[in-house]
Structure formats: structure tokens, C-alpha cells
Write a structure and sequence with these properties.
Layout: H1 4-21, E1 27-33, E2 48-51, H2 57-62, E3 71-75, E4 87-90, H3 96-117, H4 122-132, E5 138-141, E6 147-150, H5 152-186, H6 189-193, H7 199-234, H8 242-256, H9 271-280, H10 284-312, H11 320-342, H12 347-354, H13 359-366, H14 373-401, H15 411-417
Parallel strand pairs: 1-2, 1-3
Antiparallel strand pairs: 3-4, 5-6
Helix pairs in contact: 1-7, 5-7, 5-10, 5-11, 5-13, 7-10, 7-14, 10-13, 10-14, 11-13, 12-13
Length: 422
């Protein structure tokens, strides 16, 4: 996974961009228009071409498989009189883009025909549609008067992605700690080790050791992922001119301030270009540093519990009754993550981002939207203090349970272990 992980992550960034650069194959559509309203009028796209042969539907159907057409578009004669469905007959599926384009284009043309029949000036309608199109640009206004461009959709994607990764890492490496403790306990190796090492030191060594393995693997993922992305940018994505993209964005921003804009002369960047520009406006250094902190802090906090559970039981089947209370806060954090993205500044979101058992995920979801420095510092301090407390608590359970064999442990028994004196 150390090698496959970066390949998958880099692929998630590279493949969508590469796919958008590929020119789709042109599909030929044979149009049979019984209404005579659309002949030679349906606008074509780079991936779709329309022909209008002077034949009826039966003739087109008989010669369909002997022709080079990919589909037959049949428009009934009563399309304006209640016959709202047009039919698309194909040899092989055309794809969602082609189907949506045909449907929306025919609907728009019927709309214009109805307006024309009712003597409505189409030029007025078109001017109103063009002039009423707006694009909402979001910028955060600082107290100093400076503004910073933001993208809510991209912030949501980064936040939920970071939260899910934290969730996965805590479970992945936390269960490694638990299984390692159980394996050493059941094999009786721990009896030899504890003759030279205190139980608390042994537990902390297990937790820190796995944490360093996880951190090393994560850093390798980051380095290899961006290395692969850089190589792909030079080779596969070399046709993307980032300077031209940035210049294009500046032209649009200037043009947006003008009263009249020539929509044909100013081209709007495509979606991939826009995402790239928005991505550069996000403080990824802060997010990455906070991700590392909450990854380690969340792992340390939960792995102490995982280690205690591993020491208290003899088999993995016995862990179920103790695992549920531990995992509920993590699962709950993912459940309320959508609410956090919708209301990042609400009181409920604030308290969940402060509560140590939910803050590793909730704070990472909030972070791309902007979090005051004092809130971030308070959250980090609380989770650090909680780690010290939970480690002390788990060590008491670990100290007694690691040398206990053949006994089914209950919650009541665990409570007694907390008050045993050394």
C-alpha cells in the first residue's frame, strides 16, 4: 500500500484531467423529423453530428444497420400538440452527455417555436437570458479590508476528504495496536518483555512505534503522490498552459466589471481550469500541517483505548463489546460532517470541533472554510490534554489486563482495574 497508495491518489488527480483533454468520438445521428420544424436547424457539437435524409422512419429503420449512423432521432408530427416524447434508437449506447444534449436542445427549440407562434420577440428573450446569467464569486472579507477568493464546493471537498482520511487512519493504525497487543499477550511473549519493561512504557512503545510507521507511510504517500503528479504534469498534461489559464481568469475578472461584455470574445475557463485556480487560493500548507497534527493526536487518543481493549481480552471476538463505545464518536463525526459543511460557524459545530473525541474529523472539515486562530489553538490544546488523560486511564487497564488470561472481562471489571494500586 505504500507504493499503491500514491499511485491511486495521483491517479485520482491526473486521470480526470487527462480524460477531459481527450476529444470524444463523433457520433452520427440520423434525424427523422415528421414535424418539419427542426430540419437542418439542430446545432451540432464536437462530439455529435446530425444528418437529415429525405426518408421516412420505416425506411430509416430498415437501412439502419447497413448505414454508418450511430442512432436515429425520431421526432413525431404532433410534437407541439401533446406528443412530448422524441425517440432515440441506437445500436450502441450513446452516453449520458449525448442524450442530455439532444433532450435539452430539442426542448429549447420547441420553447422558441411556441414563443414565435404567440408572436413573442425572441431577440428580447435571448437578450434577457444572456444578460441575466451571473456567476456568484465568493470572497472572504478580512477586518483589514483585504478580500480573499474562496470556493465553497472545493472547500467542502477538501474538508470531507481530510475528515474521511483521518477516520480511516485512526481505525487502520489503532486496530494494528490492538491486534499487536493481543498477539503478544496470547503468545505469552509479553511475560518475558515485562520482566524488563514497565507496562506503561511497553504500551507507549507500541503506540508510538505504530504511529511512526503510519507517519512514515503518510509522508511517503505525500512525497510520491506529488512526484508522480509533477511527472504527469510535464508529460501527460504538458498541453495545459497554466500562464494562459491565469491570464484568462484575469480577463474574465476585468470583463465582469464592464457594463457590456462580448461573450464570444471572452472565453470562460473550463471546469478543470477553474478548479485549479480555486485550489491555488486555498492555504494548503496550513491544512496539511493541521492534518498531520490531528492525525497524530487523534491516533494517540484512540490508540490508547485500542491498546487497553487488546490487553483486556484474549481473542478478537471478545473485543466487540468494548469497541462500540470507542468507535461511536468517530462514526458520529462522519454523520454530522455534512451539517458541519453547511453550518461551519454554528454553535453545535464549534463544540464538536472542541470535543477531543470528535475534533480530529470535525475540525478538519471546518478548516478549509476558515477557522479563527484561537479556536484552532484551543482545540489542539484540549486534544493534547485529553491524550495525556486517556493514556493514564488506559495504562491502568493495560497494567492489569496484559497478564490476565482465560477470564471474560466485563465493564464492571474494567472499572475495578482503574482503582488498583501499583
Amino acid at each position: 500500500m505504500t507504493i499503491l497508495g500514491p499511485l491511486l491518489l495521483a491517479g485520482l488527480m491526473i486521470v480526470p484531467i487527462w480524460m477531459t483533454m481527450q476529444k470524444p468520438s463523433t457520433q452520427k445521428i440520423e434525424v427523422i423529423d415528421e414535424s418539419y420544424l427542426f430540419s437542418d436547424l439542430i446545432p451540432e457539437k464536437e462530439f455529435i453530428h446530425f444528418d437529415y435524409p429525405n426518408i421516412n422512419f420505416v425506411q430509416a429503420q430498415d437501412g439502419f444497420y447497413d448505414s454508418d449512423y450511430d442512432a436515429i432521432l425520431y421526432i413525431p408530427h404532433n410534437i407541439l400538440e401533446g406528443g412530448k416524447a422524441v425517440k432515440l434508437f441506437y445500436k450502441n449506447p450513446l452516453g449520458m452527455a449525448a442524450e442530455e444534449y439532444i433532450g435539452s436542445t430539442i426542448s429549447k427549440m420547441i420553447y422558441n417555436v411556441i414563443l414565435s407562434k404567440n408572436k413573442v420577440d425572441l431577440n428580447v428573450i435571448k437578450d434577457a437570458e444572456v444578460n441575466s446569467r451571473i456567476h456568484v464569486l465568493t470572497e472572504k472579507l478580512e477586518a483589514s479590508g483585504k478580500s480573499k477568493k474562496t470556493d465553497t464546493g472545493l472547500s467542502m471537498a477538501i474538508g470531507i476528504g481530510a475528515g474521511v482520511l483521518i477516520y480511516m487512519f485512526i481505525f487502520l493504525y489503532g486496530t494494528q495496536v490492538m491486534r499487536g497487543v493481543m498477539e503478544e499477550k496470547t503468545s505469552r511473549i509479553v511475560e518475558v518483555i515485562l520482566s524488563s519493561v514497565k507496562p506503561f512504557h511497553f504500551m507507549m512503545g507500541k503506540i508510538i512505534g505504530v504511529a511512526l510507521v503510519g507517519l512514515t507511510q503518510f509522508l511517503l504517500w505525500v512525497i510520491l503522490t506529488f512526484t508522480l503528479y509533477g511527472v504527469a504534469t510535464i508529460t501527460i498534461l504538458q498541453n495545459i498552459d497554466m500562464k494562459q489559464i491565469q491570464q484568462q481568469e484575469r480577463i474574465i475578472k476585468i470583463g465582469a466589471d464592464l457594463k457590456y461584455m462580448d461573450m464570444k470574445r471572452i472565453d470562460k475557463p473550463n471546469e478543470i481550469t477553474q478548479i485549479w485556480n480555486d485550489f491555488q487560493s486555498i492555504d494548503m500548507e496550513t491544512i496539511l500541517i493541521c492534518f498531520l497534527f490531528y492525525f497524530l493526536a487523534g491516533y494517540f487518543l484512540y490508540s490508547a483505548f485500542f491498546a487497553a481493549v487488546g490487553a483486556a481480552v484474549d481473542s478478537e471476538a471478545d473485543t466487540q463489546q468494548f469497541m462500540l463505545p470507542i468507535t461511536i464518536p468517530l462514526i458520529f463525526s462522519l454523520v454530522i460532517a455534512p451539517y458541519t459543511m453547511q453550518e461551519p460557524e454554528s454553535t453545535l459545530t464549534f463544540w464538536f470541533s472542541m470535543f477531543p473525541l470528535t475534533s480530529p474529523i470535525i475540525m478538519m472539515v471546518r478548516l478549509p472554510f476558515g477557522v479563527p486562530a484561537w479556536e484552532l489553538a484551543l482545540s489542539m490544546s484540549l486534544i493534547a490534554l485529553s491524550f495525556i488523560f486517556t493514556t493514564w486511564l488506559a495504562a491502568k487497564i493495560y497494567r492489569t489486563g496484559i497478564l490476565m488470561y482465560g477470564k471474560k472481562v466485563s465493564w464492571r471489571e474494567l472499572g475495578k482495574w482503574l482503582f488498583y494500586k501499583e
